[in-house]
Amino acid sequence: MSRPEDLLEEARKEISQASSSESLESVRVKYLGRKGLLTGVLRDVGKLPPGDRPRAGAELNRVKIAIQALLDERKTGNDSGAAIPVPGGVDLTLPGRGRFFGQRHPLSQITAEIVSIFYSMGFGVVEGCEVEEEYYNFEALNTPDWHPSRDEHDSFYLAPGILLRTHTSPVQIRIMEKTKPPVRIVAPGRCFRRDAPDASHFTNFHQIEGLYVDRDVSFANLKGTLAEFARRVFGPEREIRFRPHYFPFTEPSAEMDVSCANCGGKGCRTCSGKGWLEILGCGMVHPNVFKYVDIDCEIYNGYAFGMGIERIAMLKYGVNDIRLFYENDIEFLSQF
Ligand code: PHE
After folding, report:
1. 30 alpha carbon to ligand 1 midpoint, in Å?
2. CA nearest 225: which of 311, 302, 118?
3. Nearest Cα to 181, choosing from 84, 94, 289, 295?
4. Which of 96, 240, 248, 296 pairs as cysteine with 143 (C-beta 3.0–4.6 A)?
5. How many angstroms separate the CA atoms of 96 and 233, rounded?
């Protein structure tokens, strides 16, 4: 009968010389297999005098465990030799998998960028609530009962008088109720409308509201601030223009367009041949709005604006479908 420690030494040598997983496996079979050398010796323990059996058995078991450990070590590459790939198992010689680093959603990135531009111009940042009272969403914004935007079809009502806000303008009322002028804030947030989804509409979207109330605020201040904002978001080559418009809560009101980056203002499909793309609504705060919040419009005046964040992101990044921002497609999102 071979001595256990000789078997261990031989096995150690063969294991260290094995050059493939197949040869390692045949070493295992040679020593530990059903008909293997160690198994044979273990079986012979039964033939020893009863008094010698426990010690011999224990000794052989130690050797068996040691050989198994040597085999395992070689497989996992913990010794100095290279690890051997295990068929059907894990190849530990492969380089590690790259880690996936998350990043901010493009809409969050552009929101942060816009907010920081206004912050640098002296605007504070506030947030309103997504579930809003009709009073703040419409009434105090001088939007009478008969106005089409109050129609059920444009809004998600949760209960009588309670709805998901359709724009960020209610923040104007909430902030002016609490703060005496001067007020200079921007308010980013999510809005909801019952629009059928298409390339430029989605049931929820984001806006950034702006409000500046003080003595002697002029439309020229509004234009200058928004021109600077557009220059910093879109670059100096893009032009802007203001078109007269109607909003119940501003008077006079306007919409601001930026020249189309795609065609440089000549007119193309992106801008429906106009050469311009609308990005925000704005105007001078309506005196009726000041009445709701108890601000004396003989002393104070102000301007407000509201811009669509998706719109700006689409223009800046050349995205042609708003729904892409909401599909959680990592391939799309990781480009930003
Ligand atoms: N709230 C308006 C909208 O959603 C935009 C706006 C904001 C217009 C502030 C004027 C002043 O279309």
Report:
1. 82
2. 118
3. 295
4. 248
5. 40
Tokens of 309: 């964040």
CA distance 18 to 71: 10
- In the structure, which protein residues have their CB atom closer than 6 angstroms to any atom of ligand 1? 167, 169, 247, 250, 253, 281-283, 304-306
Choose among 247, 258, 236, 121: nearest CA to 186.
121
Spatial separation of the C-alpha atoms in residues 24 and 87, rounded to whole Å = 12
Count the Cβ atoms, other than its own, within 10 Å of residue 326: 15
Angle at 37 between CA 36 and CA 41, to 5 degrees: 115
Q: What is the pLDDT of residue 89?
A: 72
Instruction: State pLDDT tens for residues 199-255.
Output: 888 999 999 999 999 999 999 999 999 999 999 999 998 899 999 999 999 999 999
- Shortest-distance Cα residue to atom 4 of ligand 1: 167
Instruction: Give CA–CA dist 158/291, Å, rounded.
Output: 28
26 to each of 15, 37, 93, 142, 325, how far by Cα in Å? 10, 12, 21, 87, 57
Ligand 1 atom showing the smallest separation from residue 307 Cα = 5
How many Cα atoms sit within 13 Å of 96 on the Cβ side?
Answer: 3
Q: How many whole angstroms from 154 Cα to the centroid of ligand 1? A: 15
Question: What is the torsional sign of CA 296, 252, 247, 226?
Answer: negative
Residue-level pLDDT at 5? 85
> What pLDDT does residue 333 have?
94
Omega prior to 252 cis, within 30 of 0: yes
Q: Residues with Cβ < 8 Å from 135, sequence gap 6 or more?
A: 161
Structure confidence at residue 152 (pLDDT): 72
Q: Residue 99 has what pLDDT?
A: 83
Cα separation, 169 vs 158, in Å, equals 19
The low-confidence residues of the chain, meaning pLDDT below 70, are: 1-2, 77-87
Instruction: Report the DSSP pairing between strands 183-192 and 124-125.
Output: parallel
Which atom of ligand 1 is closest in space to residue 210's alpha carbon? 9
